[in-house]
Amino acid sequence: MEMLNLFRSAIAANNRERLADLLEEVQAFDQARLLLDLTTDERQVIYGLLGPEMLADILQELDYDEQLPVVEELGVKRFTQVLNEMSSDDAADLLGSFKETLAEKYLGMMRREDADDVRELLAYPEETAGGLMTTEYVAIKKASTVKETIESLRLIAPDAETIYYIYVTNNKNQLAGVLSLRDLIVAGPGETIGSIMSEKVVSVPVTMDQEEVAAVIDKYDFLAVPVINDDNVLLGIVTVDDVLDVLKEEATEDIGQLSAIRKIDELEVS
Ligand code: ATP
Ligand code: MG
């Protein structure tokens, strides 16, 4: 509440520097909550202030029904820039809810490589591993050394959904091993990935139902699980935060059913 008032007065005073400072102080999730409490006009000031990366982070924190008005307010050009910066899975979820012609329009305006990732994900049914996964994972070759891998992580990290697991693939992009960032850091710089990776990789098929995917992650206590096709080709990863959303949806459905049952009971009593 306090923060909201500080925000409002900075907007009213058109004090952009102060606003930028205030925004810096809070997490994307809290920025998103603040944004929803503002008026449309006040939000426009924020949109003008933030770059597409920060706007993408904020949009990803909103539920679907909260995203739509923000999308509308951003306008076509700005929203397209934001789409380019969103995780491919979040962008696909959002565009997947649009009419096909509208989704195509945005995909056509997006950066080619980002649009290709999103198009690929849109092809998978929503409630499967494919519909849940992101294509922003870290994969390297067996022959790389630890030192080389740490160097390439510096380049890949900003765009990867998580860098905690590093997947090892062969020349056909088939999944051959896995290691954690911890495994990498404690190894000597000259060791090869092949010598420190684990070959016993738990993966899920792209067609697996999302609730089963959640159960796999829960069972092994992983932060993410790789998604493969019938040829063991690595297609993406499902991260624990996406699985939490699935479990939350499920719980809400169950609670919904419970209250429906209670209503029926009450009707029968009266
Ligand atoms: P530990 O639990 O051993 O202390 P950690 O807490 O750093 O390690 P965890 O997330 O628990 O990391 O992962 C433990 C191990 O599981 C890591 O060595 C990692 O390589 C491995 N691992 C990660 N993903 C998979 C997977 N999909 N299949 C098999 N092993 C995996
Ligand atoms: Mg552990």
TrEMBL record:
Range covered out of full length: 1 to 270 of 445
Membrane topology listed for this record: Multi-pass membrane protein
Main location group: membrane
GO cellular component: plasma membrane
Keyword terms: CBS domain, Cell membrane, Magnesium, Membrane, Metal-binding, Transmembrane, Transmembrane helix, Transport
Gene transcribed to yield this protein: mgtE
Function: Acts as a magnesium transporter.
The species this protein was found in: Metallumcola ferriviriculae
Compartments, as annotated in UniProt: Cell membrane; Membrane
Residue ranges of every copy of the CBS domain listed in the record: 133-195, 197-253
Protein name: Magnesium transporter MgtE
UniProt GO molecular function: magnesium ion transmembrane transporter activity; metal ion binding
Domain of life: Bacteria
Record flagged with keyword Lipid biosynthesis: no
Family: Belongs to the SLC41A transporter family.
Assembly description: Homodimer.
